[in-house]
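so im writing up the methods section and need the Aldehyde dehydrogenase record in one place, dumping it here so i stop losing it
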Amino acid sequence: MIQIPALRFGKSYTSLEKATLVHHVTGEPVAEVSQVTGSMIARDLGNMERAHKELAAIPIRDILAMYKKAADYFLNAALPCGDTELTFDQYVRNLSATTGSPIVFCDRNARKVHYVLGNIEEVIGGLTRGLPLEALDSGYSTANGRMQAFYPTTDVFGAVLPSNSPGVHSLWVPSIAFKIPLLLKPGREEPWTPYRVLQAFNRAGVPANVLGFLPTDHAGSADILRLCGRSMAFGDDRSMAPYKNDHRVEIHGTGYSKILFGADQAEKWEQHLDLMVEAIAANGGRACVNASAVWTPKNADAIATGLAQRFAGVKARPWDDPHCEVSAFAKSEVAEAINNMVDEGLKTPGARDVTQEVRGTPRLVKDGRCAWLLPTVIRCDSPEHPLANKEFLFPYASVIEYPHADVLKRIGYTLAATALTDDAAFIAECLACPNIERLNIGPLPTNRLTWDQPHEGNLFTHLYKQRALQHAPRAAREPAAV
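--- predicted struct ---
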């Protein structure tokens, strides 16, 4: 069993209290992860001003070179993992074992982290909207005769991380390039990716005293969000509610992402069936950018049936099967609770589970310790139905028929939307819609992201604020000659 210590900004720490991670199939222990307390977190954060200054003094070009090395180490090297070393394949296998996400999903999403590490210049160029790299050294830049100046909002960036997919870790990876020390609280079942990234950074030359890996409990997570000047956190609407109005915390929560048919494309829905399947089910349907609703002015019954027929063949497969399409739940009681929520919603008139009608078998599948939820398409008669605006940790989507002219007034918050239309007027309305954060126009699934454009917050503008800056001419600053 692997022993994974906390990393207290340059000091490895093994605690008496540990969290035991088990294999989701066998129940056998895989790792023990040392835990830290809130007082330890507060003590470590007291050293961040000095660490921040040390990181800020490293030229940005040198940091970018470290990222290139770290990308290579992350993918190709055997890196320390507590009291052992893991190759990339071994890391992926352990990641799958404790999270329940199939090996094929874990491998694919871990490579997204590798991509961000290896293409960090492109990523930060998008996040800063083309700010010259040297501005990260000087704090300002002059472009087209206009001064742009920025200052850091914090000495450390805290991230309270989830366990659902390694792809989310690409969101905090650029923080070292922005010269802000990093404090990571890993998800309980997913310490593997953040620990490996920090080890790759360390081997590439990033100072260990700017890298923190602090596994902790719920109270410790709250301490991180309270004590760090800037942070990000992942969770559902209920767990993130206390931080909704806290500008220091960038929330990554429920996405309510949607596919919106324009009136000009609703008759051509079959041409977009592959797109809808990908948007709903890619990566096991667990991402905030997976579509959880399809809104159309017509043909809702046909769309729901078409999707159900495509999803009816999806089966629960073992974690190491390369053809996996859905993830197992490491805790079967979580799958059972979600399944009960859907069934309870169906008791309200005005909705039906079209996939179950086509498939003829239940959505909940159990085998030993494991449980899966098969893709589910719910045809809702109106947006008011309890299942019309829901999002779950498996491929789930409601299909709603609603008048084209009023749809944007009714959809509510939408992290990612795909507008299937060539109607210039509808496109203009989508561009102006304040409810949509990320907009794909045309046949681009909601889950298709580009790394040079942020969604659900911009890490650079979270870590830096713009300031007014004027330099007096040198002659005005020098004493007059006598």
